[in-house]
């Protein structure tokens, strides 16, 4: 479904002084992988590892400095936005910050219908009601504004908008990192259920290997713009080969670590 062929992306950093040099920043370097239909493909790495750059390249929102992205056999990279209709109708993205993804001046019904309007898809009111129900929001939510919802509910609205045009591929870029801990598990479980219900191919991006393990069956590990490990998520989690992956596994919280330092007095009501 998705093929990344030796993807590289470099940027020029702005000058620190009017006459100073413009340094080159390498965000990705020769990253290659394939995502097959129905797969739950995780991408994990720390901040600055190139995850967000990779998302933009896969979604056709940016072009690589070298290499190529193909979607279902069709070239994505290097094409004009007007020539990417085949991609927009079949691939949708959910971003990290739900409030930043939603226009505060628009009602929820209009927000969810945005991709339907852009792609001239009929039956908008019925589809809005259908996806609102799918993400666990009442029909009355359609007439309200984003600021009237909690962070978890706003991310549900983002999921509903992504699902509205019936995509085949969903890219989730750190979809729970901006949410309270208490609602992260709810949104992750909802996302997993939606992937199953609609037979989606999922590309899930996170800095947290434990979250990727919960959602995905395959994981790619990025470090400093390079792909350092790729394989089945349980295999990578239990027998990591690269030192950086072993570091990520050690950083995953455990129950024993979470309880360290807690005394009996702390547990007394």
Automatic annotation (TrEMBL):
Keywords linked to the UniProt accession: ATP-binding, Nucleotide-binding, Transport
Record-linked InterPro entries: AAA+_ATPase, ABC_transp_ATP-bind, ABC_transporter-like_ATP-bd, ABC_transporter-like_CS, Oligopep_ABC_C, P-loop_NTPase
UniProt key word Transport: yes
GO BP, sorted A to Z: peptide transport; transmembrane transport
Source species, domain of life: Bacteria
PROSITE patterns: ABC_TRANSPORTER_1 (PS00211), ABC_TRANSPORTER_2 (PS50893)
Keyword set includes Lipid metabolism: no
Domain ABC transporter: 2-249
GO molecular function: ATP binding; ATP hydrolysis activity
Family classification: Belongs to the ABC transporter superfamily.
Official protein name in the record: ABC transporter domain-containing protein
Species per Swiss-Prot/TrEMBL record: Kutzneria albida DSM 43870
């Amino acid at each position: 479904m998705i093929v990344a062929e030796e993807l590289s992306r470099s940027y020029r950093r702005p000058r620190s002084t009017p006459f100073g040099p413009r340094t080159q920043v390498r965000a990705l370097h020769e990253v290659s992988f394939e995502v097959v239909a129905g797969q739950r493909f995780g991408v994990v790495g720390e901040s600055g590892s190139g995850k967000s750059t990779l998302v933009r390249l896969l979604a056709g929102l940016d072009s690589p400095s070298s290499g190529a992205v193909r979607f279902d056999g069709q070239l994505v990279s290097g094409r004009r936005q007007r020539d990417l209709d085949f991609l927009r109708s079949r691939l949708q993205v959910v971003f990290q910050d739900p409030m930043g993804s939603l226009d505060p001046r628009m009602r929820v019904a209009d927000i969810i219908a945005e991709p339907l309007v852009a792609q001239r898809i009929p039956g908008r009111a019925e589809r809005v009601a259908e996806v609102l129900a799918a993400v666990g929001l009442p029909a009355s939510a359609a007439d309200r504004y984003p600021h009237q919802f909690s962070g978890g509910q706003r991310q549900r609205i983002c999921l509903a908008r992504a699902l509205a045009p019936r995509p085949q591929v969903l890219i989730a870029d750190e979809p729970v990192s901006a949410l309270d801990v208490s609602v992260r598990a709810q949104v992750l479980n909802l996302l997993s259920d939606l992937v199953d219900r609609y037979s989606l191919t999922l590309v899930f991006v996170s800095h947290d290997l434990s979250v990727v393990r919960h959602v995905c069956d395959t994981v790619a590990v990025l470090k400093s713009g390079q792909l350092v490990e790729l394989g089945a998520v349980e295999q990578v989690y239990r027998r990591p080969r690269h030192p950086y992956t072993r570091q990520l596994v050690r950083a995953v919280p455990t129950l024993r670590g979470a309880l360290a330092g807690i005394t009996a007095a702390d547990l007394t009501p």
